[in-house]
Amino acid sequence: MANNLVIVESPSKAKSIGKYLGKNYTVVASMGHIRDLPKSKIGVDIEHDFKPEYITIRGKGDIVSALKKAAKKAKKVFLATDPDREGEAISWHLAYLLNIDENAKCRISFNEVTKSAVVASIKEARAIDKSLVDAQQARRVLDRIVGYKISPLLWSNVRSGLSAGRVQSVATRLVVDREAEIEAFVPEEYWIITAHLTDQNGKNPFEARFYGMDGKKQDIRGSEAAKEVLKRIEGAQYTVQRVTYGERVKNPAPPFTTSTLQQEASRKMGFTAKRTMSTAQSLYEGVSVPGKGVTGLITYMRTDSLRVAAEAQQAAVELIGARYGKEYLPRNPRVYKTSKAAQDAHEAIRPTEVEILPEDIRSSVSTDEYRLYKLIWERFVSSQMASAVYDTLSADINANGVTFRATESAVRFAGYRAVYIEGSDENERKDVKKLVKLEEKMPLKLVKLTDEQKFTEAPPRYTEASLIKAMEENGIGRPSTYAPTISTILGRDYVSREKKMLYPTELGKVVTDLMKAHFPDIVDINFTANMEQQLDDIENGSEDYLELMRTFYAPFKATLDIAEKEIGKVEIKDEESDEICEKCGKRMVVKMGRYGKFLACPGYPECSNAKPLFVDTGVPCPKCGARIVAKKSKRGKKYFGCEKAPACDFVLWDEPNKEPCEKCGAVTVTKYGKYGRKVICTNEECEANKKQPEK
After folding, report:
1. Is 430 exposed, middle or buried (0-12, 13-18, 19+ CB in 10 A)?
2. Which of 73, 193, 336, 560 has the fewest C-beta atoms under 10 angstroms from its C-beta?
3. Do 248 and 390 touch, CB atoms closer than 8 A?
4. What single DSSP character describes residue 369?
5. Is 672 or 175 the better-scoring residue by pLDDT?
6. Distance between CA 207 and CA 452 in Å, rounded?
7. 206-247 pLDDT, tens per residue?
8. Among candidates 152, 2, 170, which has minimal Cα distance to 72?
9. With contact defined as beta carbons under 8 Å apart, do 251 and 407 qualify?
10. In whole angstroms, what is the distance from residue 661 CA to residue 657 CA?
11. Residue 673 to residue 591: CA distance in whole angstroms
């Protein structure tokens, strides 16, 4: 009797599931999408109810043939693609190509790649969810219409190769608008005066900051105001006016959603959103675990839900009690409330088996996989733990009618902090080990006064983490779109990234201004968020796909017709570089080509000099003293070499550190392996690289 056939997207997922289902099942991979809209044309028949014109993706013909052959021999075919809109659409396309009735119970899905979840899904096989498919199709068709109708206008009036999109254009606008806020910001001067105090015996030192004068809270604006405060407290006696000791309880952060995982991986580990999702995908699909073989380590990583299965919560409770003690358990199990906008189709991101500790897998996975699993494991376990408890102090200190305020906190009970501290918490004022003892009317001794001139700061530029947070808060995109959206706006050169900060390019500003003027709805945050909600409504069956398309297209077409007549040619000023053209002496400019940025002479066509754009690492070449710059090989791999190449052949595959070797002064690089971060000297003969004998 022929085997049952199970089709998934990737080979690693196929390997994991094949191990769980046994010899009566053959598991194969479709290698992602197999049908899509054509790239050569819009591929949507607008005149006939926006019918998509799907084709088999180029290069997938052999895969489709193999799948058809396997399906023909199989007793039954199960479609086990990812449990979301995109996965449902892939199953729908597979059903079409393999002549499977979409109403047949052929669709299986699971939130985690574990034996219990996979086996249970076979028993709970269902028909393909057409509402999910319609929601994915609506998004795909909307994005295709917007992209293929607006992009040609950008090509002809701004620059070839540009694109517009429902989500990417709004994300770009957020970065552009933030830069405009920064440029318009006018800093205001203020001063911080701090009293460094002790008791009368010179013990128990603490700090108190200026709070106000004559019983009123106020800020110190300007140097004259600061001088006035300092003059008033000159020679004054410092006395405790009011003191309050209290308690503060801080609850743990909830388990991760896609958005918070991407934010925290960026803050704590410097991961891009793309790197986070790629690593999470491999953890979800399955990695090799000692004693278990290939195992899915985390639940599905595209989710905006905070829900946790009761069994997983109980497993966490048992682990916390055994590993940390019962005092680290809350009185009642923690339940986190998911936002109304969340789809809640899946659980929060958590370990599939909390008993698999991060250290258990360290030797068998990549460094990225280990670090991300550790982050997810610690966040989930801490989310089920008792709150942290702090002892707090707030005291007002009087000095001739000037009030200084001291605030301190000391950890009484670590609670969840024994396992995990959220990234933003690390920027808070440090806790003291023990609160200072103060009493009302207690005289104090002034050790010194410090006064600092400060200026109010403009809003910070977005990082990937904060942009994702802003997109989520404004309802722009969904968990599956955050990472690809950021990759797109960076790849299109609308936004550049420097030391984590996102800057709009001149091109990004020009395109955004053009979109605001001619397609205001497409770059309107509320319009985009409302569209996302309508797509969710299609998914849950409360809105019709065709009705949404008709409602959207009529006003869009009218706007498009006007824009085609009104948009004029836009000139973008080239960014000047520090490089001087060696042929004609002009300052070279940065241009964007098919393969990225390059340097070109502005004297073209009289001078056609052009060369690659190298990014300076700030490290001198040890062979000739010129700059070590970042380069790309013919295959696109990043490496680092002397700018004087080929005359100088110094080259590195790892980015050089600015700090030279302490022992020999040679260039050092940082490598990450299974055992963490290690600084290595590039001088192979250096003593720093030699293994030290055990004592």
Report:
1. exposed
2. 73
3. yes
4. H
5. 175
6. 14
7. 999 999 999 899 999 999 999 999 999 999 999 999 999 999
8. 2
9. no
10. 9
11. 37
Say how far apart CA 110 and CA 114 lie, in whole Å. Answer: 9
What does the alpha-carbon distance between residue 585 and residue 218 come to, in Å, rounded to a whole number? 57
- Of 300, 373, 416, 545, catalytic: 300
275 close to 368: Cβ distance less than 8 angstroms: yes
72 DSSP 8-state letter: H
- What tokens appear for 477 in the block? 């995109």
At 463 the pLDDT is 95
Q: Where are the beta strands (DSSP E) in 494-606?
A: 495-498, 501-504, 575-580, 587-593, 596-600
What single-letter amino acid sits at 124?
Answer: E
Residues 6+ away with beta carbon under 8 Å from 375: 261, 264, 265, 268, 269
Could you give the CA distance from residue 468 to residue 486 in angstroms, rounded to a whole number?
Answer: 9
Residue 322: predicted pLDDT: 96
State how far the Cα of 590 lies from the Cα of 665, in Å rounded to an integer: 34
**In which region does residue 581 sit, left (phi positive, over 0), alpha (psi from -120 to 50) or beta (all else)?**
beta
Tokens representing 694 are: 């055990």
Are 545 and 538 in contact by the 8 Å Cβ rule? The answer is yes
What's the token pair of residue 73? Answer: 């021999």
pTM of the model: 0.82
* CA distances from residue 663 to 622, 623, 694 in whole angstroms, order as listed: 15, 18, 20
For residue 389, the cross-strand partners are 249, 413
Task: Examine the residue annotation and report whether 300 is marked as an active-site residue of this protein.
Answer: yes
| pLDDT given for residue 353 in this prediction | 95
Q: What pLDDT is attached to residue 675?
A: 47
Packing angle of the helix pair 367-383, 258-269 (nearest 10 deg): 120
Collect all residues with Cβ–Cβ distance below 8 Å to 356 and sequence separation of at least 6: 289, 292, 295, 297
Burial class of residue 189, CB neighbours in 10 A (0-12, 13-18, 19+): middle
Q: Can you tell me the distance from the alpha carbon of 127 to that of 143, in angstroms, rounded to the nearest whole number?
A: 27
Strand blocks (E) in 251-315: 287-289, 293-295
- Which candidate, 630, 612, 622, 670, places its Cα nearest to that of 650? 622
Q: At what angle are helices 130-157 and 545-566 packed, to 10 degrees?
A: 0
Sorting pLDDT into bands at 50, 70 and 90, what band is 673?
Answer: low
Closest CA to 499 of 192, 270, 236, 178: 270
Please write the tens of the pLDDT for every residue from 155-213.
999 888 888 999 999 999 999 999 999 999 999 999 999 999 999 999 999 999 999 99
Query: What is the band of 2 on the pLDDT scale with cuts at 50, 70, 90?
Result: low
Taking the C-alpha atoms of residue 147 and residue 313, their distance in angstroms, rounded to an integer, is 44
Judging by DSSP bridges, how do beta strands 77-79 and 4-8 pair with one another? parallel
Q: Does 112 have pLDDT greater than 60? A: yes
pLDDT value at 541 more than 70: yes
Helix (H) and strand (E) counts for the chain?
A: 17, 28
Structure-derived torsion over alpha carbons of residues 560, 562, 563, 565, reported in degrees to the nearest 10 = 130
pLDDT tens digit string along 266-304?
A: 999 989 999 999 999 999 999 988 888 889 999 999 999
Residue 597, CA distances (Å) to 232, 573, 651 in order = 59, 15, 21
Between strands 4-8 and 25-29, the pairing is parallel
- Provide the Cα torsion 371, 376, 379, 381; round to 10°: -110
Give the dihedral sign, CA 283/286/287/290.
Answer: positive
CA quadruple 594, 595, 596, 597: dihedral sign: negative
When computed from its CA atoms, the radius of gyration of the chain, rounded to whole angstroms, is 30
State the virtual CA torsion across 644, 650, 651, 652 in degrees, nearest 10: -130
